[in-house]
């Protein structure tokens, strides 16, 4: 894993490979690719052309905030 500044999150975050991201989220790669297709995740590409996913955008959908 490496870190990078994610502009949409406006913070330093870990970058995950497709395999790592699917494992981290507890989903299959097909679901992850669907999330990528619909723009749900923040993506980066490394020098070798591999897709890297912002960990913050991966966990954000599951974070619920209580409002009082």
What does this structure look like?
The protein is of the alpha+beta class and about 70 residues long. It has one domain (about 1-60): Multidrug-efflux Transporter Regulator, Chain: A, Domain 2, CATH 1.10.1660. It has helices at about 20-25, 30-35, 55-60; strands spanning about 1-5, 10-15, 45, 50-55. A four-stranded antiparallel sheet has the order 1-2-4-3. The longest helix is centred in the middle third of the chain and has 9 residues, at about 30-35. It is globular, with a radius of gyration of 12 Å. Mean pLDDT is about 85; it is low at about 60-68.
Reconstruct the topology from this structure.
Layout: E1 2-6, E2 11-16, H1 18-25, H2 29-37, E3 43-45, E4 51-54, H3 55-59
Antiparallel strand pairs: 1-2, 2-4, 3-4
Helix pairs in contact: 1-2
Q: Whole-Å distance between the termini? A: 37 Å
Tally the structural domains.
Answer: 1
Helical residues, percent = 25-40%
Mean pLDDT: 84
Query: Radius of gyration in whole Å, from Cα?
Result: 12 Å
Q: Count the helices. How many? A: 3
Q: Count the beta strands.
A: 4
**In sequence order, what are the helices and strands, one letter per element?**
EEHHEEH
CATH class: Mainly Alpha
CATH topology term: Multidrug-efflux Transporter Regulator, Chain: A, Domain 2
Largest sheet: 4 strands, antiparallel
- The global form is globular
Q: Taking strands numbered 1, 2, ... along the chain, how are they ordered across the largest sheet? A: 1-2-4-3
Strand content: 25-35%
Known CATH architecture? Orthogonal Bundle
